[in-house]
Amino acid sequence: MDAKLQTFLQKFQHLKINLEDITSATNNFNEKNRIGRGGFGNVYEGELSHSGGRSMVAIKRLNLDPRNLQGTPEFLKEIMMLSRYKHENLISLLGFCYERHEMILVYEHASRGSLENYLNSPRLTWTHRLKICLDAAKGLSYLHDPRGTHQRLIHCDVKSPNILLDDQWNAKVSDFGLSIVGSANEQNSVIITLAAGTVGYIDPQYRMTHTLTKESDVYSFGVVLFEVLCGRLCYTLDSNHHIEKILVPTWIASYQQKKLNEIIYNDLTIPLDKSALEIFSDIAYRCLNESREDRPTMAEVVTELENALEIHELPKSQKSCEWKETISYYEEIIKTAEPPLNYRTTVKLWVLLSKGVLLNEGKTWFSLNDKGEHCEMISCGACIIPSVHESYPWSSGYNSRFPVGTYHSVRGRFKTTVRSQFLSPHITYTVNIVFKTMLPEKASNCHLMSLKYRLQGETKKSTSYLVCEREDGWWMAELYQFTSDRRSVDLEILFDGFDRPFPVIEVEGIEFRPLEKVDEKQPISDPYVYWEEKLPNDYEDIIKLSKNSVQSTTKKEVYSIFCRGFLINDDQEWFSLDKNGKKCYMLSATAAGIEGEIRRWRSLPKSRFGEVVELKEREFKIVREINYQLLSFQTYATYLVYKLPRDQSGYEAPVEVIEVVDEEGSGSDHIEYFYLRSHQTPVIKPKAYQCTHNPLHRPKIKGIPEQRDDGWMEVQIWQLQTTATSNMIHVSLKLTTCGAETLEGLIIEGVELRPV
Length: 756
Hints:
This protein is of the alpha+beta class. 21% of the residues lie in helices and 32% in strands. Helix 4 (126-144) runs antiparallel to helix 9.
């Protein structure tokens, strides 16, 4: 190896992967492992250990000759660029190999391949298309403006084949072989280069100047935007697969003549919103400006695509006549907005209100949910009566949306007088306390709190056991539910402290949030659609685990039995497939390794396993090794399947779940909580004889029990990720009730694992 080359690669030793490992992962570069081909060489997939762990990877085997160093610069450039520029929307370099005249690059695996393969696919909805374009734009924007941490990078070959998609349809920009480094502090880096890019995507200014700038990438990305809009590549091919015609001029003319309907892709069930189409096509057209100075920056492209996506995803309620008729109401209430709102269209007004605005001199936070229902939060400064026990009650250091900041409470004892003004009539609301606190590292997105509270004039206290983290970074505990009969409601809530030690809380306010509900009618899908693809490849091996359950003559009959489920492994386990063909697996209480103070094991004909366990004390464990063959490669939810005793008075408190990580019983840094009995939030009724509240059909929430079709109860208690790195998955969980009572009388049938 050349000495200079060896010195250069020495900097990246942490990325080095042995050729032997690569040949093993690709079955010696077997054709069955090949997923791509091009002038650069072939791309293979395989499972490989690398600096980030072990996973499926994409392996690019370059068609280069390292003995005379032809093409070496492109190989080294990929290593240098992708190790320096890291972003969630750039493909990641996981390693490289330079051995025995081989130059190989190892990337993260984008399982769905490149965008070009889906341009004319109905599977790619307009929401998918907008998000993919936005992802790619964010990646390019990072390259063009890396915030001073690196030099600017001009990609030089932006095109749909170089935008890769992972299994969640997230887009990642790839292939930096032609990229060029510019200066980060220069507004316009002009580089003379022979790196022309790809026909159809090339900046027309390049033909005249042989220079490329970041605006050249913008032009190429504009071509990609039109490809996504039109559902086809930017060129046609002749019978010899040579480029016959470039379609970009036709697309530009269609935009200028307001004839987008003639070129837009129309094979999708849900069309692109007209306002979103206007924004999307406008920014795509601006990218294709002949003059580089007139093209937008990638940061501007990101902003416009975000707007297009927001508008496309706006609910139908915003576009209805009802919304248009109530615009005057919103225009009236936002007169008190701080700062004043600037908007030109009613769509923009909806977007602003969906994000939330401050009203009433900064004392009220008002927003709309996706159904057009009103959400309202009253600031702590407007509703909390400070306790005499709090020396320094107010704080401004927690990034509150309210100018007053937060209320500092050590004991959780204070009084609130809350008056709403903007509720939607005839909507069921939850009343929540919103705050921040310093929780231990073991906290998950839910934490045990046990806050006591009551309404003024009532003697019975309620307990809010769990506090959950919101998307905005604040914590929230649900206090009450009620159905509004007018826009305003007055509540006096007395908070009476915590039942257990809890950190200081910084209260932001009291929130009225519409109760999320789900439609009872769920779409019924045909499980036999694509049944041959859903039947596992190892179905014959799974059948052998059953004694007599699976007897059939055709593969379709086997699939039908797999969907219904059957007993395996001495009738102590249950195997089935879900509607998507993913493996589901249930263990009896015996097979799940239930440990603890057990009252008795007893037979129960109503159980599919014939035997159940009945608990006695406050704590029990689940300890089991699970064969990975019985699960699919993905994330699984773990459910406890059980029945409660007749006397359920001791089951109000949640149960804590900790993963046991060593023989001493030490827990991991993650804690989950769940309820064995459906947690009933107190309901506020307008009058004693009225009962307008119906809290049924709430969405399924992790940790809240559900009734199963087989008569048992189930609740999600944990989540695990299956991998191909081990033949067995070890599960060891310790479950402890948070209440003072025991779990005596709780009957456990088993533990079930289902795909998330």
